[in-house]
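Before relying on records like the one below, remember that each one covers exactly one chain. Contacts with other chains, cofactors or solvent are not represented anywhere in the record.
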Amino acid sequence: MNNKYQKTAIDIVKQEWKCKIISCKYLGGGSFGRAFRIELDREPRVVVVKIYLADGLCQNEAEDLRLLGEAGAIKVPKIYLVKSKNDGCVCDCICMEYIGGRDCLMLTPKYLFCPSKRRQFVEDATDAVIALHSHTSEKFGYARNPQFVSWQDFYRQYVDEIMLSAKKAYAAGKIQDRILSIAEVAYRNFDKFFDEKVERACLSHGDTNVMNMMADSKTLRLKAFIDPLNALYCDPDYDLYQLGALSGELLGMVKRYKQKCKVSDKCDLKVATYGIFCELNCYVKTGRYTGFIMNKAIKNLKKQLKMHDLY
């Protein structure tokens, strides 16, 4: 399947830059896209082409990258080109700056990285998220156009849309009962979970997990964040689900963040709720999910529900 996307990425670069392709390397992918590093024989010499698996996301991500770049709290890739099916392209895609280094998924104690460098990386990452949170808005919602007076109003509408799609998918036999049923428990208890007023609408990258953090290959100093997913002005606790995802938990990302910043009284319950609706949203948008990630989201939410006598 990646061969098809690779050919598409190469064709787009050839067409736009009228160039010779020197090399093309698959960088990886997630729920919403596949990325390729393409070296060409003229400036900018190296570009990243991200091919989207769901329609309508490329313009949103390009705008998110622009907004995050303007905020200046973190380095993000520069956008060279945005193309969509509406432009006659075979797929939605973005061509953007290549940021060298490595993603930070494998920076766990199991691997041979200097502990002091890992600790410095955690400091860099949590400081970057906190710096983003220092940018605030009077209203909550998508960073492109925040319109809601309260976080609860925005997030309720967001979850309503996810649940509507999930129930349709379940009726069509596309979603397992164990996934929908736990989401329904959270949905029924929404007002209990989100009864604390969120005072600040903080800027969020939207997907601050270690796979979207690029670090220097030798020093492990944080270089940039990539792949935002619906940048928001939101509850600052919202970022903690992704910050603790994958190897972020072993690195102690959330623990360090909590040492630096005050969180809400129901932070852990809300974060578990953010997790299940994040993964459910990926599922209904793309028709796929990563088993161990979904399973962990379900486990974490069940744990929090039991702690609050709700399951």
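The two ends are 41 Å apart (CA to CA).
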